[in-house]
Amino acid sequence: FAIFKDWATGMLYLVNMIKGMIHKRPNETILQFMTRYAPTSDGNDPVKYSQFIAVHIGVDNSFIMGKLG
Questions:
Q1: How many angstroms separate the CA atoms of 13 and 4, rounded?
Q2: pLDDT at 22 over 90
Q3: Distance (Å, rounded) from C-alpha 13 to C-alpha 48?
Q4: pTM
Q5: Does pLDDT of 12 surpass 90?
């Protein structure tokens, strides 16, 4: 968890962090990514999150994150 001076700074950090995570594991699916990024052990539902993301970008949650370009 982190606190940023404003929304734009926080969003920039988030985008760069996600890009870095994808760069390290380019063959990871959306579901695998969300399982690591938002694990059930923290009270999250990575399957639901991955499906939400997949629907919004027009793929399914088995889509390989490295192909997002």
A1: 9
A2: yes
A3: 24
A4: 0.81
A5: yes
